[in-house]
Task: structure prediction
Amino acid sequence: MMNWDRIEGKWKQLKGQAQQQWGDLTDDDLDRVDGKREELVGVVQERYGLAKDEAEKQVQQFESSCNC
Result:
């Protein structure tokens, strides 16, 4: 979670990476997220019909892999 401040600050650049990881997310979804971690978890959960803990896990993996 320490990286999240950096992710939030670079969200415009990282939206593409997020879209690669979650291809079902729309540009509107990603704009709505606007770098907010909880919002991303919610959108991933909603789009993919996941349990909150699974969505959290995926966002954590994204956080680890984004090289921020």
The chain has a mean pLDDT of 92. DSSP finds five helices and no strands in the chain.
